[in-house]
Amino acid sequence: MASITLAELAEKLGAELHGDGTVAISSIAGMDKAADGQITFLSSSKYRKHLAQCQASAVMVKEADLAYCSGNALVVKDPYLGYALTAQLLDSTPRCATDIAPSAYVSPLATLGEGVSIGHNAVIEDGAELGANVQIGAGCFVGKNAKLGANTKLWANVSVYHGVQIGASCLVQSGTVIGSDGFGYANDKGRWIKIPQVGTVLIGDRVEIGACTTIDRGALDDTVISDGVIIDNLCQIAHNVEIGENTAIAGATVIAGSTKIGKHCVFGGACVVNGHIEIADGTTITGMGMVMRPITEPGMYSSGIPLQANREWRKTAARVMKIEDMHKRLKAVEKQLEDSE
What we know:
Blueprint: E1 4-5, H1 6-13, E2 16-18, E3 24-25, E4 27-28, E5 38-41, E6 58-61, E7 73-75, H2 79-89, E8 105-106, E9 111-112, E10 117-118, E11 123-124, E12 129-130, E13 135-136, E14 141-142, E15 147-148, E16 153-154, E17 159-160, E18 165-166, E19 171-172, E20 177-180, E21 185-188, E22 191-194, E23 201-203, E24 208-209, E25 214-216, E26 223-225, E27 230-231, E28 236-237, E29 242-243, E30 248-249, E31 254-255, E32 260-261, E33 266-267, E34 272-273, E35 278-279, E36 283-285, E37 290-291, E38 299-301, H3 310-321, H4 323-340
Parallel strand pairs: 4-5, 5-6, 6-7, 8-11, 9-12, 10-13, 11-14, 12-15, 13-16, 14-17, 15-18, 16-19, 17-20, 18-23, 19-24, 20-25, 23-26, 24-27, 25-28, 26-29, 27-30, 28-31, 29-32, 30-33, 31-34, 32-35, 33-36, 34-37, 36-38
Antiparallel strand pairs: 1-3, 2-7, 21-22
């Protein structure tokens, strides 16, 4: 959609229009840079002082901030959500592919739904099933008997291994690998013996996966990513992990094998999660959190030492190295006090 009138936008957002509904909106910008033909949003009242200088054609605000607007406004319950929905309406992102490129290889034993598009040099192997309106970017690989639901999109150079199932309306960014072998080996007197990974990966509907993320197939059972999960770039999801609905995982997070993560959890960037543990629904782990034990109660959890100036950090590290000796001395002092009493 090239542009939309404020009246049309208000109707789609369920917003209350104040001002000229015929004004055309073609894009979104931040409050400090927005110009004529653009819409912006005020997500926090502490920035309302900037409304007077704002040059946008319209602003999305809460009811409490409307009085501070001198121009066109859309009153919504959540301006940031309004921004997200408006961005979808005005999205100019190109398709992953258009039609079926002559350089693509599609097995005669694959099944393609109506409106499927496949980019240059992509490979679709025997038994693969692509639902209606699936878009496969250039250089992608879809292995034997893999299944992709309707309206799912793979950007360039995504690899989907054999037997993997991806639901409807999913989005996978470039370079991601889904269904590679889990890290399964047995040790025979110092020699590593590979364990074939015979499970697969099951991904629900409306899942979004960032660039260069890896999701391993299960060893015996399956790796499961439930509906509505969002996973950022450069994450590692090991074999047999299960992730509950609408959980969000930020970049560079590593989740070890056979961990079960509940619904509506949030993981900050660069978290590390131990294997074979369970994490309760509604848990939030702040950035660089190291989860070594199960979490049975929802809430916010943190770990690690916050950044310090190097001189201070070296002192802290030196004291941490002596903590066992300090503990022994403290116990000795406590015993002396108990004896004296």
